[in-house]
């Protein structure tokens, strides 16, 4: 959902950044939603149905490997399609590249360590939004960024409260996500 939320926020509050016409915005947002939310959810449901994973929580690091690899492939295919078949603005493609980098790196880390991908995604969005606040003149992204920061805190607290992750897993996920999002924005824009 990170990509859908992020593209929605930037499209509503900083539309010049994405350079997508208003009449095409909903269509592009639909593509983003399908590739970054719907297809991964269907994949995880299929993995659960066929017994590849024992629960949707995927408690162990080993159980996460195959679903994460499948989701990474979906994101890479999406990037290929956006770059080759649906050429949109360079800024949109760069932002989607950063989001895909978040997914790829979270999968690579999963080979060695279980991190909170929820924390990674939430803090990755903050890492992307913070530099955009500097780029926009009218502070239109200040409130959405502030709300995203509060939501990220709530997500991380929930992961700890539910014992889904240890404190270290949440912190590593948050620092990784923020670092990739922020550095990606600085390097690409």
The count of β-strands is 0
Content-based structural category: mainly alpha
> What best-fitting shape do the alpha-carbon axes yield?
globular
Strand content: under 5%
Query: Over the alpha carbons, how many angstroms does the gyration radius reach?
Result: 16 Å
How would you describe what is shown here?
The protein has one domain. The protein is an all-alpha fold and 189 residues long. It is 79% helix and 0% strand. The two termini are 23 Å apart.
Set out the fold topology.
Blueprint: H1 2-13, H2 15-18, H3 22-49, H4 61-84, H5 90-110, H6 117-135, H7 142-161, H8 167-188
Helix pairs in contact: 1-3, 1-6, 3-4, 4-5, 5-6, 5-8, 6-7, 6-8
Entry summary:
The chain has one domain (2-188). 79% of the residues lie in helices and 0% in strands. It has 8 helices and no strands.
Distinctive features:
189 residues; mainly alpha; 8 helices; 79% helix; 0% strand; globular
